[in-house]
Design goal:
Helix content of chain A: 40-55%
Distance between the termini of chain B: 38 Å
CATH topology of the largest domain in chain A: Butyryl-CoA Dehydrogenase, subunit A, domain 3
Strand order of the largest sheet of chain B: 1-4-5-8
Radius of gyration of chain A: 22 Å
Shape of chain A: globular
Shape of chain B: globular
Number of helices of chain A: 12
CATH superfamily of the largest domain in chain B: Butyryl-CoA Dehydrogenase, subunit A, domain 3
CATH architecture of the largest domain in chain A: Up-down Bundle
Largest interface: A-B, 30 and 32 residues
Number of strands of chain B: 10
Helix content of chain B: 55-70%
Structural class of chain B: alpha+beta
Oligomer: heterodimer
CATH topology of the largest domain in chain B: Butyryl-CoA Dehydrogenase, subunit A, domain 3
CATH class of the largest domain in chain A: Mainly Alpha
Distance between the termini of chain A: 52 Å
Largest sheet of chain A: 4 strands, mixed
Largest sheet of chain B: 4 strands, mixed
Number of helices of chain B: 11
Structural class of chain A: alpha+beta
Strand order of the largest sheet of chain A: 1-4-5-8
Number of domains of chain B: 3
Chain lengths: 383, 389
């Protein structure tokens, strides 16, 4: 067993970088859409064989046991090489959840199957009428002897069509005084009778999220995580790291690089109007990098991120959005062409950044919700 | 030094800066804060020479001055702590203008004029100013039309006109840029030198800025501070450092204006609720807060770049990045602050206008945001060409 944390940061970075460069399929670098299981399975299994699927899990459970500093290096190297996300809900959500709140049976049954690629998890949180106001979710789970009977609908469930299992928030006590009480955390097998998954094509023309219907679906009572009616607390505590990864500047840096290629080929740098817009975006990204570094330092020191981390997500996603808009504008007539367009020998997918900039301010808590959080918890504004 | 010793040294420096920050804040507050800034409007000089001497006694005028001149030999980061606090308190004393900029030129140029002038400047006895820009407002230091020509008696005659000269009404002397056969040259001329004429214009803050015209001003060769490449280097560096300090002053001002606004919207009640409870107001306040954080980040990077390699392209780019961001943010926050305050924010009796006016002056000084974005782009292009050459 290698103790990665004992390794020097630079040595570790080189190790990870070399592995990615030598093993990650080059045709999958910087994919223009979220990869489906059939496309990414090979890489998932490569990571599994290497023992690198679960960087943050303790080694006891088959993870790499990386401390925050090493994990950030791991992420930076993934982003640097344009390594796509795998279906990683099992690693980022279910694993840490079970390690903290699961029973011994749950841990020994589920964790190895995630690491072997047998179980692919999806996240059943949002519902048609519970998005930003997630706690108003209605999908019910009624106890019937030793089972839960689930009825309702989840939506915007990313890659549910590839998932074998879903972890979900369900209402187990409709009479609870506060809507946050009366919610439980359940693990459900997607093969259970009564589950229907319908992919929803998005405006980019891809099927990445789905709606999932539950019609008298039965799940064993043993599949509850944590206590009955305490699911909300658990879900909130799971946010942790997501809040910093959503604020990474890499997406914006990559898009700015593509924009620069495109603009150079078009001779736009001689246009003072373009130059001022481009430079303003360069400065936006440079300032994002420095604010991001400040939060990374907090994580590296092992301290807890405060509510102010929400500013990262807002600034990162909105900067990305502005870059993607300028890319479309700069491409002119080519700004409506789907797929890669050749700009003087450099293929640039103009529209993929534009499309991917749409959901970024929505997922992981909309930017409006992030602003509410800062207003109340950082600036102390009254409600 | 090992890692632990370095961390300990960094913690010590952070402690020292915190103490410095607290002592500057306490002192300027005792001096009168915004009330004093208000009282000084339209006066000539637009600041208090007694307070200036106290700054000198506290060592604030000698922070970055090398020990050989009686200075403390500290870094620009310590000076930024002072600039930020003075900016936040709207202190009218021209510390950045006279010390970082004018005395900075002397310090970087060195030589006999610097040896003679820097100790009394650090002691608060002489207040210099730099006259480098001309009436077209170009902020390229090499853009000089004023001339220095040798006369028949072995002296030098300066001719030309310098614009946007800070505290021209109060300065004891001017460091002027002029063109001679070697290119750029820097001269020291006392304020009362024959042939010097000053026309004052009020700035938005009420302080005076001068147009200094020189007609056959006679100077001795010993008044030449530096010439040629050496003069240009000293000038460039001092201007860049002053630009970073102006950014620091803006960061101080930004924090105060934002907090003032947050305090107001928490208590101003309309429709039976504090207006700060309305989401339309909250989200705008959050956007201002985000900009405030970005400005701090940009300033921090500029200070780090100047610590690492003060004359590098990276430091110049970081300087422009900071000034562009801080100028934009200060004006944005002050405009939004007026809007969120409503009509009271537009009155002269309310302090907010003092912040807005100071933001206007600091944003326009040494290159505004649009000018610094252009400079940032030009530096980037130059370094790309260097890399590909």
């Amino acid at each position: 067993m290698i103790d990665w944390n004992a390794m020097g940061d630079e040595e570790f970075r080189q190790e990870v970088r070399t592995f990615f460069e030598q093993n990650y399929p080059s045709e999958l670098r910087y994919p223009p859409h979220r990869l489906r299981w059939a496309e990414i399975k090979g890489w998932y299994m490569t990571l599994a064989a290497k023992g690198w699927l679960a960087p943050t899990w303790p080694t006891l459970y088959g993870g790499m046991g990386l401390n925050p500093t090493k994990f950030l290096i791991f992420i930076e190297e993934q982003e640097r090489w344009g390594v796509a996300r795998t279906p990683d809900m099992g690693m980022t959500m279910v694993g840490p959840l079970l390690i903290k709140h699961g029973t011994e049976e749950q841990k020994s049954y589920y964790l190895p199957k995630i690491l072997r690629g047998e179980h692919l998890w999806c996240q059943g949180y949002s519902e048609p009428n519970a998005g930003s106001d997630l706690a108003s979710l209605k999908t019910s789970a009624i106890i019937d002897r030793d089972e839960f009977v689930i009825n309702g609908q989840k939506t915007w469930t990313t890659l549910a069509q590839d998932a074998t299992h879903i972890f979900m928030l369900v209402r187990t006590d409709p009479q609870a005084k506060k809507k946050q009480e009366g919610i439980s955390f359940l693990l459900v097998d997607c093969k259970s009778p009564g589950i229907t998954v319908r992919p929803i094509p998005n405006i980019a023309g891809n099927e990445e999220f789905c709606e999932v219907f539950f019609d008298n679906v039965r799940a064993p009572r043993a599949n509850i995580v944590g206590e009955l009616n305490k699911g909300w607390t658990i879900a909130k505590a799971m946010l942790g790291f997501e809040r910093i990864t959503l604020g990474s500047p890499k997406q914006s840096q990559y898009a700015l690089g593509r924009l620069e290629i495109l603009a150079r080929q078009r001779g736009c740098f001689d246009d003072p109007v373009f130059l001022d817009k481009f430079t303003a975006l360069q400065l936006d990204v440079a300032d994002l990098v420095s604010v991001y570094a400040r939060f990374v330092d907090i994580v590296k020191r092992g301290e807890t991120l405060g509510p102010d981390v929400s500013l990262l997500k807002i600034w990162a996603t909105e900067t990305y959005s502005r870059i993607s808009s300028l890319m479309v504008e700069t491409a002119g007539a080519a700004g409506a062409i789907v797929g890669k367009v050749d700009f003087g020998g450099e293929p640039v997918d103009v529209l993929s950044s534009f499309y991917y900039a749409r959901p970024a301010p929505i997922y992981g808590g909309t930017n409006e919700i992030q602003r509410n959080i800062i207003a109340k918890e950082v600036l102390g504004l009254p409600s | 030094m090992n890692a632990n010793a370095m961390a300990a040294a960094a913690a010590d420096r952070a402690d020292e800066r915190r103490l410095l920050k607290e002592s500057v804040a306490a002192f300027v507050e005792r001096c009168g804060g915004a009330t004093r800034a208000r009282a000084m409007r339209g006066r000539s000089p637009g600041f208090d020479r007694a307070v200036w001497r106290e700054f000198a006694d506290l060592g604030w005028l000698a922070v970055t001055l090398p020990e050989q001149y009686g200075g403390l030999g500290l870094s620009l980061t310590e000076m930024a702590v002072i600039a930020e606090e003075l900016g936040g308190a709207l202190a009218p004393e021209p510390v950045i203008e006279a010390i970082t900029l004018a005395a900075g030129v002397l310090r970087h140029a060195g030589g006999s004029v610097a040896d003679e002038l820097l100790p009394p400047i650090a002691a608060g006895e002489i207040i210099p100013t730099l006259a480098w820009q001309e009436s077209d407002g170009n902020f390229d230091p090499a853009h000089v039309a004023a001339t220095a020509t040798a006369d028949t008696t072995g002296g030098i005659r300066l001719n030309g006109s310098k614009a946007f000269v800070p505290h021209a009404d109060a300065a004891d002397g001017f460091i002027v840029t002029a063109r001679d056969e070697q290119g750029l040259a820097l001269y020291w001329i006392p304020a009362d030198a024959p042939g010097v004429e000053i026309v004052l214009r009020p700035l938005a803050t009420g302080a005076m800025v001068g147009c200094v015209s020189m007609k056959q001003v006679e100077v001795a060769p010993t008044q030449r501070i530096a010439a040629g490449r050496h003069a240009a280097d000293a000038l460039h560096l001092a201007i860049d450092e002053a630009t970073v300090m102006a950014s620091a002053a803006l960061v101080g001002l930004i924090g105060k204006a934002l907090n003032m606004t947050l305090d107001y919207i928490k208590v101003r009640t309309q429709f039976g609720k504090p207006i700060g409870s309305f989401q339309a107001i909250q989200h705008r306040a959050v956007d201002l807060y985000i900009q405030c954080e970005l400005a701090q980040g940009a300033l921090g990077d500029a200070l780090a770049a100047h610590t690492e390699a003060p004359r590098s392209k990276a430091a110049q780019a970081a300087t422009s990045r900071a000034k562009a961001r801080c100028s934009d943010v200060a004006l944005l926050i002050c405009r939004e602050a007026v809007q969120m305050h409503g009509a009271i924010g537009f009155t002269d009796e309310y302090d907010l206008g003092l912040y807005l006016n100071r933001a206007l002056v600091l944003a326009a000084w040494l290159g505004n945001s649009a000018q610094h974005r252009r400079r940032y782009a030009a530096i980037g292009n130059a370094s790309t060409q260097e890399a590909s050459a």
